[in-house]
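so my prof wants the structure for this chain in the tokens format not the other one, which i didnt know existed until like an hour ago. anyway here's the sequence
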Amino acid sequence: MNTLKFIIKRLLISVVILFFVALIIYVLMRSLPASYVETIARQKSMQPGSKSFEEWMAQLNASYGMDRGIIPGFLHWLGQAVRGQFGDSWFYTVPVLQKFEETIWLSFIMGAISMVLELIIAIPLGIVAARKQYSKTDYAISVFALAGISLPTFFFASLLKLVFSVKLGWFDLFGIIGRNYEQLDKWGQFLDKANHLVLPIITLVVVSVGSLMRYTRTNMLEVLNADYIRTARAKGLSERKVIYKHAFRNTLIPLVTIVGGSLPGLFSGALITETLYSIPGIGYTSYTAMVSGDIPFSMFYLSFLAILTLLGNLISDVLYAVVDPRVRIA
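here's what i got, hopefully its the right format
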């Protein structure tokens, strides 16, 4: 019951925080130095048989509350957003939610595969490094982790493309489908898309796995130095049982909260990686919309990120109380 009350309380607080975050986003959009509304209106007015520039300006301003003050305009936008009406994307010329649904799942698949690979690689290597502290194995794993943390995404992605796309020709440089995609059968099309996702996923894993690996090592060392671990060893338990039955279970407590908090990030997209590889996921789509002055899509995406962040914090707090019996929510 206490947990339920805690969740309800946090959700109510999150709604208040989200309100003010959305207000800040709206104010920033209204304060942009260039008037993207004027740009769009001018482009539309130049089309054959189109309305005049003034008519387009009036229509666009009225549609997005730009003809009102900031607070009335924000409340107008918020009222539409609550009903799921985010308008049409100026750049993609389709409803914002339709474009979102077309791109979100590709980013989710990439993020989910990357997260699974990170867990498979980082946790075992972090445990091995902690067990063999200050050994050659520990140093090798630490160097690999620090290299992954230090490598800029754009540099590592460019290096992968240079080696595997330009030099070896194993993968295409950009995109999600190849030139002969339409001529392939269903299985061939699946393999073609999978082939295009190899380098982006490798990029995501390598630049992200280092921090989780170091975190696992640090927590494992802390647990291995605890009194109850020394007691378990003194009782004559095998090293394997000490490590995986006692130490590893307690190491998982902070790891679970980190992984739980990163789950919403699966839906936010990898903006830099998707942009570098021209993968039409939600990250690349939102980047293109922002640089093109697509205010409706940008407003939706930034608000979506705010929701994911608040949800991630809530998941972390709840999971910590669930996996650690010493923590009680009161």
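also thought this was worth mentioning. The CA atoms of residues 179 and 192 lie 10 Å apart.
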